[in-house]
Amino acid sequence: MVNVTAASLKSSNNNYRPIADTIIKLDSIKDQKLIKGKKSKANQRTKNTTAKTDTSKKANGGLQEEVTSHAEDSTIVDHVNEITYLYGRARVTYGDVELDADYIRVDQKNHLLFAKGSIDPVTKRYVGRPISKQKNEKPIESDSLFFNYKTKKGKLYNPLSDQDGDYISGGQIRKLNETEVAYRNVLFSTCDLPYPDTHFGIVITRGIAEKNRIISGPAYLEIEGIPLPFAIPFGFFPKPDSRTSGVILPTFGEDQKLGFYLRGFGYYFGINDYMDLTTTGTIFSKGSFELNANVNYLKRYKYRGNISLSYGSHNYGLPGDPPTKDFAINWTHSQDANAHPGSTFSASVDATSSTYYQNDPTASNYNIAALTHNNSQSSINYSKSWTGTLPLNLSVGLALSQDLSTKTISQLQLPTLSFSMASLSPFDSKDRVGEQKWYQKITISYSLSASNEVDNILESDLFKGSTLAKNLQTHISHNIPVSLSLNVFKYFQFSSSVNYTEHWYLQTVRKSYGRGSIAGNDTLITDTVNGFKRAGSYNLSTGLSTKIYSTISFKKGNLEAIRHVMTPSLTFSYTPDFSEPGYGYYKTIVSNATIPYPYSNQLYSIFPDGFPGQGKSAGIGFNLDNTIEAKFKAKATDTSGKPRKVAILQGLTFSTFYNFAADSMKLQPISFSAHTAILNQKVNLSFFGAFDPYVNRVLDSISGGQIHKFDERINRYTFQDGKFPTLTSFSFSMSGSLNSTTFSPQKPVIPGVGNALQNLNGQQAQRLAFINSDPSAYVDFNVPWNLSFNYSFSYQNNITNTTIANTMMLNGDFNLTAKWKIQYSTNYDIRARKFAISSFTIYRDLHCWDLNAQWVPFGPYKSYNITLKVKAAILQDLKLSKRSDYTSNPSFNQ
Question: Which of 112-127 are b and which e, b meaning 16 or more Cβ less than 10 Å from the residue's Cβ?
C-alpha cells in the first residue's frame, strides 16, 4: 500500500504527474459542455482500493448519489485537482450508471469520467475496452468514452451496442439525455462483431436515436467495408423494445408453370405481450395464389403454442383447367407441468390435403422428408388425475390419421374417452397386522374406453353431411381384471387372473350376397343396423415362472464374471368359442347360387370391430427369456471402486402355444426375438422370426393352360421326418446415431433451475420458434460430425416363393472446415442395387450470414436450391434464393 500526501511530495521536489491520455482528446470548443480542465499539482497513489467521493454534495444543484470507484491494479488520487486515476480492471458506479474499463479517470470537480482500454504487451491487442450501462439499458462497449455523470451526457468512440439482434458499431455516439442519442458514421447491422470486422450493414452518417426508433440522415449500404451505390437521403429504423406491427416485404421470382410471383407479402400484428399474428400471401401471374396465417402465443409458466393455417389454389394444367385447391392446419400446444397439477392439455395437429406439400413445396422449404411422407397424424388430448385413497384417471381426446398416398382418412375419432381406476385389494385392510394372507393379495381394477370412429373414407367425403351419419361407429368397452400373485415353493412365482370384457355398440352389421350372384362372383352387401347391442367375453389364465442363474468367474484380467439368467414360464389359459350360436354374436352368410352352382358360406361377427374373437382356446403357453451380462473391474479413474456391468445380450426370447382344444395343428409357430446394444448403447441390434413346426407340401395345379404351385399344410411335425422346423419369417435391423462425442467421456449435465423453456428471454424465444418452424435451417458447427443409420433385412417364406428386402438408410453431416459443413441423406436398396431419394446440402457459415446449397440429384424431386440469408431471426425475410423447382421441369418424372 502506498499513501503519499501532496505536501511531502512537494517538499521533496518529486512531484508525480499522471500519465497522459493517449487515445482520445476532448475538443476544447466542441466539447466545452463536457469539461472544464485544470492541470494537476499534487496526487496520491494507492493500490487495490475503493474510493468514495462526492458524498457531501447533496444540496440543490449538487450530486444526488454517491460515486464509488475501484481498481485491481492501482489508484492515484490528485487531491488538489480532485482527479482520481484507476488502473487495471477499474470500475466506477454512480446511481444507475456503471462503467468498467482497464483505465478510468474520475474528475470530481467537473463530474467527468474518461475511460479507455490498453495495449496488451504480450498480444499487442487492445484489451479492457470500456463497458458502460445505465438503468435497464443493455451494456455498450466502446474504444473510449467521456461521460458527465451529473448531466448524464457523454460521448463514445467506436461503440458496439446490441438491440435485440441489431448491432450498432463504429463511428461516434453522443448521449444527449436519458432518452436520446446522436449517431455519426455508425454501422447499423445484424453482425455482432465490432467494427471494422462487421461484414454487412447500413452506414448512418448522421442520426438521432430515440427509445423506439432511429431517425437518420444520409445512409448507404456497405458489405465487407465496400460502400455500395445504394443510398437514401433519410431513413427510419425501428428499435422496438416490445412487439411492433408492420408490413412484411415480399420476394420476387418466376415459376415456369405458375408464372411470375410476388411471394410472402403480408403484415405482422404484435397483438400483445402474449400473442402475435403473421399473415402472408403469394400471388402468381397466371392466377394461382397462396394464403397463410400463423399465430404464436405464450404465457410464461402456463402454456405455449402455435397455430398455422394455409390455403393454396394452383393451376399446373392447361389454361382454363380447374385449379387444385389445398389446405393445411397445424397446431401445437403444450402446458407447463406446474400450471395445473393433476391435469394436462396438449395438441399436435397436422391435417393437410393429400397434395398440399407437392403443390406448395415452399411451405416445407423444399424439405425432402415433408415432400415424401405418406402419413399424417393429429391428436388433441386432455387428461385429469385424482389422487387419494382410490386414484382415478380420465382422458379425453380427438385423433385423425391420414393416408396421403391413397387420399383417405384412415381413422377419425370424435372423440375418445378413457377412464381407469388403480388396482385395489378388496380383502386387505389398512389396519392389518402381520404379513398378507393369500386372499388379501387378490387385486381388482376397472377401466372404461369409449370411441366414436369413422374408418377408411375418402378425403373428399370428409366434409359431406351424410358421411358421419352413415359411417360413424360408436362403442364403449368395459374391462375388469382380477388377479392374484404369490411366491410358492420359495423359488417360483405363481400368478392367476380372470379377465372380463364387455363392449356396448350403437350399430351392428348384417351381410348378405346380392340377388342373382353366383359362387366365385358374389356381390357382398353390408348393411348397418342402428340399435343398442352388447357383447361380453372372458378368459382365464394361470402361470408359473422362475429364474435360473449361472455364472462363470474369471481370476485374471479386467473381466470378473459373466452371468446368464434364464426366465422360463408356463401359462395355462382358457377362452371359450364365442362364435357358437348360443351367444348370438356371429351369423352365417350363404350365397344365393342354385344348382348346378355350388354355394358358399362365411361366418362373420355382427359387430364392426369383429369382437369377440372366434375359436375355442384351451392350452399351455411356453416362454423362455435369456439375458447375458458381463462384470468388469472398476477403472482406475473411478473413485467409487464399483465394478462395471455391461449387457451383452439384453434379451433372447422363444415362445409358443399348444392348444388342446384345436382339432388339428395344435402347436402354434415357434417365435423368437432378440435385442441388444453396443458402443455404449449407441447402436441397437434386434432380430425376430418364426418357425413352422408342421410339414408343408408343394402341389401343382393347371389353370388357363399354365402350371401354378400352391402349398398344403398337413398335420405332421417336421421332426417326424427328421427335419428342422421351416423358417417362415426373419427380420434383422441395426440402427444408431453416432457423433464426435460418442467415443469420448461425457461431462455430467447439471440441470438448470426451473423450466429452461420458461426462462427464455424474448430474443431466445423468437429464435427457438424459428428453429422449430424449420429444423433443417439450424446447423450446429460445434459438432464436427453426425451419423444416423438404419439397416434392415427381412425374409418371408411362403413355401412356394420367398421375398427378401435389404435396405440401408444414411443421413448425417460433417465439417469440411471450421466454416463449411456438408449434410447428406440417402436410401439404398441393396438387393435392387438402386438409390432411393437422396439429397446433399452444403452450408457455409459467413458469421452473420448463412449460405446453403441443397441438391437432389435424381428422382421425382430432382432440384437444387441455393440460399444466402441473414442469421438474425428478425431479418429472416432478407435473403437471396436461386432454385430449380421440380414442378417446373417436365423431365423430372421420367
Answer: bbbbbbbeeeeeeeee
